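#struct-pred
JK: can someone run the complex with flavin mononucleotide? inputs below
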Amino acid sequence: MITSLETIGRRSVLRSAVRGLGAAMLTAVTSGCGPGEWNAPMPPQETTTSSSAQDAPGHGEGRRVLLAYFSRAGENYYYGRRTNLDVGNTEVLVAMIGNLISCDVHRIEAADPYPDGYDETVARNVREQDINARPAIAAPLPAIEKYDTVLLASGIWNVRAPMIMATFAESYDFTGKTIHPVTTHAMSGLGTTERDYARSCPGATIGEGLAVRGEETRGAGPPVEAWLRRTGLLRSQAQ
Ligand SMILES: Cc1cc2nc3c(=O)[nH]c(=O)nc-3n(C[C@H](O)[C@H](O)[C@H](O)COP(=O)(O)O)c2cc1C
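RT: done, structure tokens with the ligand placed:
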């Protein structure tokens, strides 16, 4: 059997990511398909509209955009060492995107919050991946019908999105909507998010994703803007 160089390269990157980040092992997990597992009668969580973007290019393009994200502050990976983040990397990236386009921003919160410690979080995530868990969301968004484009943003944990993103993705009917995976990561890029969201959200189109290294998030303005333009989420006024 012939294996392409690209495939080999990707596999090695994934393996070294898992080793380098201290996760116990890469467990093959498949997320369940289809909407509807979640039906907990929880009070709605408010979404915030990125008001600073109201007059930004891209507003009024006719697209109704939801930017839903999960991000964890606390002890995290930083160039092979550890650092303490007051604000999670993905949240920084989300703020940047929210300043450039008009969208509703929704923070996904775990009903059982993740620990501050890095090792404890790695351990919990390995357990959740092992059992293909769907961690409960506190105050979930009641509906996403009004959006046609959804940006799903999170860090990468053990080469995929945290399992709570699967909870979110399986909670709604994404048929006819476009999903753009957005990640911050140490070295795994988008990880398996494109495949996972395609499986969790049948009928959705998976658009171009954005992957930003966590350590470089704060300076990621130019690549973020370029991606927003490529995807048509941000149009220059001259166009
Ligand atoms: C539990 C855990 C597992 C991680 N696993 C990976 C991984 O497999 N690949 C990778 O590139 N980065 C990994 N990272 C690094 C995070 O993806 C990165 O720091 C990201 O920016 C965190 O986003 P946040 O601060 O918004 O939560 C991991 C971090 C944690 C806490």
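RT: quick notes.
The chain has one domain: 5-28+47-230.
The CA atoms of residues 150 and 179 lie 5 Å apart.
JK: thanks, will look after standup
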